Structures are given as structure tokens and as C-alpha cells.
Amino acid sequence: MSRLMEERQDAFATAPAAAGEPRGGCLARAAAPLLTVIVPAFNEAATIDELLRRVVAIPLDMQVVVVDDGSSDATPNVLEGWEGNQFVELLAHSRNRGKGAAIRTGLDHARGRFTIVQDADLEYDPADYHRLLAPLLAGEVDVVYGS
Description:
Elements: H1 3-13, E1 35-41, H2 48-56, E2 62-69, H3 75-80, E3 88-93, H4 99-109, E4 114-117, H5 129-137
Parallel strand pairs: 1-2, 1-4, 2-3
């Protein structure tokens, strides 16, 4: 575990979530975090753990919502390791309903001012979140698409 993640976990150890409050928010437990990261996942056992480690390492006030879309591989087992993690909210579909449905489920739980869809396959680097947010925070644009 990185020193930064240990410091964050120590900070949250003294401020647990209220009963019924969704888990999430990597730097602060805000009612409306700056960013919601939705991670739709289907059969991503090989990459989901590393992806979540990279996401929670980003120093932003965020909520992370993972939607397992009925995976038939070891993805649910890997996600069990994140159960109870204060930075990550885990949701699951009982059967595969498609990426769009997984994103919609994530949006139903999103509390952030801005939302990013982060595929679980490591194609996009969470370290780019700051660059994506900069023009939004500056009021220069209404939407940003990454590629």
C-alpha cells in the first residue's frame, strides 16, 4: 500500500461514514464530492484491482462507483477485496446488461459535481483526471471528452 493511501486511510479512520451513507470520496467525505468515477466492469479480473488502486491514489475529492455487470470470471472475487473500502462503492448486476446499463446504474448513485466513466481495462490513465477537470473548473467548457 502506498504511503499516500495509508495517510488517507488513517484520516478516514477517525471520520467514519454515517449509517446509510454511501462509501466514496478519496480526500474528503463531502455530501457532494467534486468527482464521481464510474467504473463499469465486465470480466475484468485481470485489471480491476490495479485500476482501483490507481484511481484511489489520485488526490481528488471523489466518489468511486464500481458496477460489476454480471461478470462470469473472477471479477466478483477480486472486488470482494474492496468490500468495506471507504473510497469505493460496489454495485452489481445479477446478469450482464451491457456497458450502458452499468453506466446508468452508476449514474443513479453518482453524487459528484462532475462524472468520469473509467473503463476497468486500464486503457485510460486515472492520472489524467486533473487535466480533464481543469477546463471545467476554469469555466471554459461544459463537457470534456478524453481519448
